[in-house]
Design brief:
Length: about 200
């Protein structure tokens, strides 16, 4: 083989390797994106009952019929220690020593009760969620937004502030709880606390 043929062969080999590397590099992101999940939270607000059925009389029964459900959409247990659930007025419930099992749901009630794996209680003596319009916002232990659910004016669902579809127990209901939300609440049973 002559010198020029050898150089040509090396150049062709280099070009083929480069082309193969480029095709491989282009194929990798495409195949990786095929397996990527849509941008959705691993824990999401799956339902909200902001207007307890019956009369809002601040009884334990009435307060515990007001709740927010969180669902772990993964197969793995997620530690919610330090996560918060907050309304538009800044009323905040903080999770303590609670782990949400994979593919399971926990209901966070407004009133008093005994915490379990499926039900947590904020131990409040007044309503948290406004019947006319409010937003439940879930944040992780670093204060980063995870999910939200809104109803009433400027309603949106799961972080999509342009989406006006309802979900869970949503809709415009007559009546309001007004601004009668105090920060004086009872002791907690271990699932979390509030501000």
């Amino acid at each position: 083989m002559s010198t020029s043929a050898s150089v040509t062969a090396r150049r062709l080999t280099a070009a083929a390797l480069t082309a193969g590397a480029l095709v491989g590099a282009m194929a990798l992101p495409a195949s990786a994106s095929d397996h990527a999940r849509p941008n959705r939270p691993e824990v999401r607000i799956s339902a909200v009952q902001y207007d307890a059925p019956g009369r809002d009389d601040r009884s334990r029964s009435s307060l515990n019929k007001e709740w927010v459900e969180l669902t772990n959409t993964t197969r793995h247990t997620i530690n919610l220690d330090g996560w918060t659930l907050e309304n538009e007025d800044g009323r905040t419930y903080t999770f303590h020593h609670y782990r949400l099992e994979g593919r399971s749901t926990v209901r966070v009630h407004t009133g008093e009760g005994r915490d379990s794996r499926r039900d947590l209680f904020q131990d409040r003596n007044r309503e948290v969620w406004d019947n006319r319009s409010d937003t439940a916002t879930l944040r992780n232990d670093h204060g980063r937004f995870v999910d939200d659910e809104s109803w009433g004016r400027n309603r949106h669902h799961h972080g999509d502030h342009d989406d006006n579809r309802g979900g869970g127990h949503h809709g415009d209901h007559g009546g309001s709880r007004g601004g009668d939300h105090d920060g004086n609440h009872g002791d907690n049973h271990g699932g979390g606390h509030h501000h």
